[in-house]
Amino acid sequence: MAHSFPGKVAIVTGASSGIGLAVAEQLVAAGAKVALVARTRSKLEEAAARLGDNAAAFPLDVTDFAAAARLPGEVVARFGGLDILVNNAGLNHRGSILDVTAQQLADVITTNLTAPIYLTRVCAEHLRAGGAVVNVASLAGMVPVPHEGAYSASKAGLRAFTKVITEDLAERGIQVSSVCPGPVDTGFFGDIDTVPDLVFSQPMSSAAEIADAVLACIASGTPEVAVPSMSGKLATLGYLFPALARGLRPMLEKRGAANKKRYKETKKL
Ligand SMILES: NC(=O)c1ccc[n+]([C@@H]2O[C@H](COP(=O)([O-])OP(=O)(O)OC[C@H]3O[C@@H](n4cnc5c(N)ncnc54)[C@H](OP(=O)(O)O)[C@@H]3O)[C@@H](O)[C@H]2O)c1
């Protein structure tokens, strides 16, 4: 569905690729001005040049809290206000926690949970009434995924944070939502062989489909959306009935392994 956000100003983290870049593209197409945030300056500048005057690169590491604290003021100075924050930057280190270092586990939590909490707080003072915060969580935050302990915890935490602050920010006329994607066809998988088969058991979405959901949340304030929605319902059932989840897991892993094999063949990985 085509949305229209003329004159609105947005910060999108993780805008150098994948979902964040698709969100930025769709927001600019909808008339918004977008601050593109990620660590890779060259990718942000290339995107900003392509998107025109309504996009600008703000290279930073979201775990650099001093830089994050300065960001909303810099965006207001550049674009004249702030209405929308999309916390999308994310990191995963997969494997048994015995095979992942303590620092890697901490980095996942800092990037996926502490940083969006910090950025939401520093942006809250600048967001205008009628604004929106959308946090990109994951199905892995709805039902725990094997070998993604810190990642699942970070995304479950982000969902919990989103639900709690909905009331806090409603006082200021700001809507808060989370979007929980299943597998999405971006570079986020990294080494495909480390991705649990269970992840591939659900239908793959495109970055543009997740961006559609993000813009729909900005427009409607829907508290939480899973993409695909049926995967969200299955994850909720699995969370409520862990014995059912354990029972279904072998079948889902078999389906996921077949999907992963097809994906690797299609992508020539
Ligand atoms: N792909 C999936 O299957 C999937 C499923 C569910 C949820 N998600 C979530 O969707 C979000 C976006 O992922 P994606 O699929 O679009 O993957 P992606 O293409 O790898 O994008 C990740 C983005 O995060 C940025 N980023 C990572 N660490 C950062 C940091 N410390 N500071 C600033 N930016 C940082 C990256 O840019 P730089 O490297 O340039 O900093 C990049 O722009 C993540 O939160 C992920 O957890 C993805």
Which secondary structure elements does this structure contain, and how are they paired or packed?
Elements: E1 9-13, H1 18-29, E2 33-38, H2 41-51, E3 55-59, H3 65-79, E4 84-87, H4 102-124, E5 132-136, H5 149-170, E6 175-181, H6 207-220, E7 224-227, H7 229-240, H8 242-267
Parallel strand pairs: 1-2, 1-4, 2-3, 4-5, 5-6, 6-7
Helix pairs in contact: 1-6, 3-4, 4-5, 7-8
This protein binds NADP nicotinamide-adenine-dinucleotide phosphate.
Short description, anyone?
The protein is of the alpha/beta class.
CATH homologous superfamily designation: NAD(P)-binding Rossmann-like Domain
The first-to-last residue Cα distance is 33 Å
State which percent range the strand residues make up: 5-15%
CATH class: Alpha Beta
- List segments where confidence is low: pLDDT < 50 over at least 5 consecutive residues: none
Percent of residues in helical segments? 40-55%
Q: Number of DSSP helices?
A: 8
Question: What is the CATH architecture annotation?
Answer: 3-Layer(aba) Sandwich
What's the pLDDT, averaged over the residues? Answer: 97
Q: What is the overall silhouette?
A: globular
* Total number of domains: 1
For this structure, the CATH topology is Rossmann fold
Question: For the CA atoms, what is the radius of gyration?
Answer: 18 Å
- Sheet of most strands: 7 strands, parallel
Supply the helix-strand structural class: alpha/beta
**Overall strand count:** 7
Q: Provide the spatial order of strands within the biggest beta sheet.
A: 3-2-1-4-5-6-7
Ligand inventory: NADP nicotinamide-adenine-dinucleotide phosphate
Q: What are the secondary-structure elements, in order, as H or E? A: EHEHEHEHEHEHEHH
